[in-house]
Amino acid sequence: MKFDTAVYCDQLRKEYRSAEQTVLALSGVNLTIAGGEILMLVGPSGCGKTTLISVIAGTLRSDGGSCNVFGEDLNRLSEEELDNFRKKDVGFVFQAYNLIPTLTASENVAIPLLLGGMDFYAACKRAEETLELVGLYEKRSVLPINLSGGQNQRVALARAIVHRPRLIVCDEPTSALDAETGQLVMEVICRLAKERSTTLIIVTHDNRIFHFADRIVKMNDGRIVE
Fold first, then answer.
1. What does the longest C-alpha to C-alpha distance in the chain come to?
2. How far apart, in whole angstroms, are the C-alpha atoms of residue 64 and residue 156?
3. How far apart are CA 201 and CA 117, in angstroms?
4. Fewer CB within 10 Å, N or C, the chain?
5. Taking all residues of the chain, what is their mean pLDDT, rounded to a whole number?
6. At residue 102, does pLDDT exceed 90?
7. Distance (Å, rounded) from C-alpha 217 to C-alpha 79?
8. How many percent of the chain have pLDDT more than 70?
9. Is residue 86 within 8 Å of residue 106, measured between CB atoms?
10. What is the CA radius of gyration of the chain?
11. Tell me, what's the pLDDT at 101?
């Protein structure tokens, strides 16, 4: 079920500057995403997809325009407020999993809760409950090195949803997985997003997963073209 607007970007601009040149990564992006929508961002490498989701997720500030997420203009937030926004409202899923190798699956999943101030016992309990949602309860005490790629990606997904964010951003979540495993991971991501009415933004080059999207947005040269 979709709700009112979750993300509204108006003439969003972002530049990367060096001594030699200035690269315009986002060039007046306009984008509206409904609450509960599953949206995929596609386009060639370097076209601005990752920059756009980084601005929307509050990990990167824009240089112009506005990005309003759940009623908050992110450019108007202080660094502390932006940090609290990420801790409370955003979950991240990456291509490389970014799990801590010395921690078990449940300990990795508990990290966002511990950062948010939850006590260790309660955080681990909820982490185990979340691993059960992604079908990995029996792997709760296993280290990442002893899990398959698909299992590690599901642990990363559990970490992204354990604090019950309203927005999940995924950067190439299936590109390191085989077709069957990628489909399984996407089925789990999308099922949980729909059950919780979570807004889901996925950057991908993987046309095998396009059918999971409510909408596909194409980018090129820092702009939305379709």
1. 53
2. 32
3. 27
4. N
5. 90
6. yes
7. 30
8. 99
9. no
10. 17
11. 94
